[in-house]
Amino acid sequence: MTQHALAPALPLETRQRMLRQMLEIRLAEESIQGLFLENLIRGTTHLCIGQEACSSGVAAVLQPGDTVTCTYRGHGHALAMGLSLKGMLAEMMGKASGICKGKGGSMHMTDASLGLLGANAIVGAQLPIAVGAALTAQVMGTGTLAITFFGEGASNIGAFHEALNLAAIWKLPVLFICENNQYGEYSAMHVTTPVANIADRASSYGMPGIIVDGQDAEIVYDQVKAAADRARSGGGPSLIELKTYRFKGHSRTDQAPYRPKGELDAWLKRDPILILKERMIAEGQLDETEYEELRSALERSVHEAVEWAKAEPFPALETLVQDIYYEG
Amino acid sequence: MPKMTYREAITKALADAMRADARVVLFGEDVAVAGGVFKVTPGLYEEFGALRVRDTPISEQAFIGAALGAAITGLRPVAELMFADFIPVAMDQIVNQIAKYRYMSGGQFVVPLTIRAAQGAGAGFGTQHSQCAESWLMNMPGLKIVVPGTVADAYGLLRTAIEENNPVIVLEHKVMYNLAEEVPDVLPHVPLGVAAVRRAGRDVTIVATQLVMQRSLEAADALAAEGISVEVIDLRSMAPLDEETILASLEKTHRLLIVEEAPHAGGWGATIAALAADRGIYLLDAPVKRVNMGGALVAYSPPLEDEVVPNAKRIAQAVRDLVAE
Ligand SMILES: Cc1ncc(C[n+]2csc(CCOP(=O)(O)OP(=O)(O)O)c2C)c(N)n1
Ligand SMILES: [Mg+2]
Closest Cα to residue B215, out of B160, B259, B279, B278? Predict the structure, then answer.
């Protein structure tokens, strides 16, 4: 197990893309919270604010044909993979033009055309599904990879252990990526989990367990890329733990009163957007004015997407019974 | 016509499906090298190799979920769950994932997967290895469910299931594996959602499946000697359900007996009774009757196990009662 403190210097356009993605995710999530409070998004939402480097660092590793399954806290992954913000927002508002025609909602972002095989609302269930996607890659010899995201809380559920075991025994090209954001709902990790690092669990399954600074998109990219290369060339699965933090509550209107004083402030200093932004400024690749321009351009496009989605129609009622079975 | 067993028919269906389509893969506990706990898969590993025929760890959630992941990315997996009693162990993957994956994505996926499991009482396996699973699953739109009750259907339904672009649960009855019947030289595919009239009759319609369907045929033989003419419908597909064949039969007989290997409450027979009430009430000359396991569970001791599943005697008596109404 290794903790890499040094970020590799990625090419300028990769950094620019990552910064842009992380900002878009941040701004989209903030507007999603507003739409939830307005009751335009119903039920629940789970924001990934603070965890954007996990999304954009991993997305940079993906190649055509790769697949991803993730959790309800998956808006960032979907956007980083290229899901249209309009399709996402319309989905959350239950509109006909939503990416899942309004049948999925905030917790089920899916875009098969991008390899995004679905965000899941049952903790842990997406891991075995990714194992199956990796099985297809192995049987068909595609050289592609399956990636599955989950929280540290999910490492206590049976599906996690079964999926890692099966993937290891079949040496499948799958990466198990744990976003350890320190909390499962309202419970701090140490209350529910007897190991200090989720990556420690990899040894039970004879696979590498890798601990990574999840706040630094470049480090995430670097470490995930190495595991991905290994998996693509038949070296089998890895368990990668991204140490991160959610800056907001678990869901809905949770204000996270269960957090110890000062903890959030300490993590805010490690804001993934600031880390990359400041590095780029220090290296002369960006200045404050350009950053502000980028930010306002993204604010405008998020605003436009929100207004567009608000104006979209709801699905026709006859669609309720469509798409249950494939007819053909 | 050659004779074949129910078990051999399933093995042949798997082999023929794998020969016909390289995307068909097979996995489950001990299905590869050992040929399966019920010896349904011998020879497949040897013919199709380690890439396509795989033993899994004892991890029903993982390999049933993997079947889904494989199905939505281009394979046509067949997963063997061994005993149907293990279905609840993988229930999240079956109910929340497999059944809903197409729907909650707004139709982005097809889910061409087959799950096989052996169900039913009568082999002395005790209460955790003898249940029937179809009633648990029928409450879940998105799944198709078949219950072959003849040798030809064991072949034909499985072939269709594997070629179907929706998830299909194939529940084989474990005491029927040794059943030998004459079959045509070329076994046909059997469509899903179509019931079969196994015996034509005038006085009473019996709707049944698998073992209790075979016992209903026995009962019908005995009743014929008493001058009672029984029509026996083998449902064979629980989802989709062939309502028309049942209603057409009621138009003739005006009396309905449902024979289930299932507890009474929430058993699939309740759905058939509701059909008769909704769409067949004016065809009926007598109340609908159900013969099933009541509130009992399957027990180990032979006489207790024999008692719990409806036998020909109980079925015949229920027909007599119904005719007397
Ligand atoms: C099987 C299951 N159990 C419980 C829940 C309720 N639940 C939703 S999210 C959550 C916490 C999960 O924590 P973690 O895995 O760390 O992911 P995070 O939400 O922190 O991203 C729980 C308990 C669920 N959705 N599914
Ligand atoms: Mg967590």
Answer: B259
Q: Which residue has the tokens 């595609």?
A: A142
| Reported pTM | 0.98
Distance A122 CA to ligand 1 centre (A): 7
Domain shared by B124 and B262, yes or no: no
Q: Is the CB of A241 under 6 A from ligand 1?
A: no
Residue B96, in any domain of the structure: yes
Interface of A with B in 141-160 (CB under 8 A): 146, 158-159
User: pLDDT tens track of chain A, all 328 residues?
Assistant: 444 457 789 999 999 999 999 999 999 999 999 999 999 999 999 999 999 999 999 999 999 999 999 999 999 999 999 999 999 999 999 999 999 999 999 999 999 999 999 999 999 999 999 999 999 999 999 999 999 999 999 999 999 999 999 999 999 999 999 999 999 999 999 999 999 999 999 999 999 999 999 999 999 999 999 999 999 999 999 999 999 999 999 999 999 999 999 999 999 999 999 999 999 999 999 999 999 999 999 999 999 999 999 999 999 999 999 999 999 8
Give the Å distances, CA to CA, from B55 to A166, B26, B31, B44, B82. 10, 9, 6, 12, 12
* Domains in chain A: boundaries: 2-310
Catalytic residue among B8, B29, B80, B129: B129
Residue type, B140: M
CATH topology (fold) of A2-310: Rossmann fold (3.40.50)
Please list every residue in chain A whose beta carbon sits closer than 8 Å to the beta carbon of residue B63.
128, 166
Distance from CA of B274 to the nearest CA of A (A): 21
Q: Does residue B37 lie within any of the structural domains?
A: yes
Show the domain range for B158: 3-182
What is the domain count for chain B? 2
Give the minimum alpha-carbon distance from B9 to chain A in angstroms, rounded to a whole number.
27
